[in-house]
Design brief:
2 strands
């Protein structure tokens, strides 16, 4: 993510050359918060600027 990565969605839509804004990540083993929602995090290219 730090060095940028190609967007899979753009590739599938035939508009290659666009960079992804970041990734959404989940743990291998599901972890949940106290509300029962699955934990995830977003890692964006802008986090490194």
């Amino acid at each position: 993510v730090k060095n940028g990565l190609s967007s899979i969605v753009a590739y599938e839509e035939g508009t290659e050359g666009h960079l992804a804004e970041g990734i959404v990540a989940f743990t291998v083993e599901p972890l949940y918060n106290n509300r029962g929602q699955r934990l995830m995090f977003k890692l964006k290219v802008s986090d490194f600027e």
